[in-house]
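Colleagues,

For the teaching module next term, I've prepared a clean inverse folding example: a structure given as tokens, and then the sequence designed for it. I'd like students to try predicting residues themselves before seeing the answer, so please don't circulate the second half yet.
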């Protein structure tokens, strides 16, 4: 199965820091799953690393993604932006990532309980 990873999930998974929900951990550890990462998450990782707020940087993240066939990056497209226009969420970056999962019609792995309030979005964590 294919899943979209939100930024916090990527940071915790790639840096082996912070808690990951039981369901999310099982999904991340399964060798049969594939994971999509939004270019928006990569931009957030760059920003947070520059502010020294996370224990990894963009180069390390891209190295991990590019060294494994289970990860792929998705760009922001006009089709995704059409979903963004219809998706209500208070924070822009999360709104873009959420809309990507909706457009792809795949679940998102996220610890953000506010994601549960978004229509047409399947959130997996605990």
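(Answer key — instructors only)
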């Amino acid at each position: 199965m294919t899943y979209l990873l939100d930024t916090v999930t990527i940071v915790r998974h790639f840096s082996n820091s912070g808690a990951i929900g039981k369901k999310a951990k099982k999904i991340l550890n399964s060798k049969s799953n594939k994971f999509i990462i939004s270019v928006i998450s990569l931009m957030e990782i760059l920003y947070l690393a520059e502010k020294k707020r996370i224990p990894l940087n963009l180069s390390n993240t891209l190295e991990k993604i590019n060294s494994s066939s289970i990860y792929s990056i998705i760009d922001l497209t006009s089709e995704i932006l059409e979903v963004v226009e219809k998706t209500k969420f208070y924070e822009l970056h999360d709104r873009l990532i959420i809309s990507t999962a909706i457009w792809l019609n795949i679940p998102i792995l996220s610890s953000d309980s506010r994601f549960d309030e978004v229509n047409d979005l399947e959130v997996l964590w605990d």
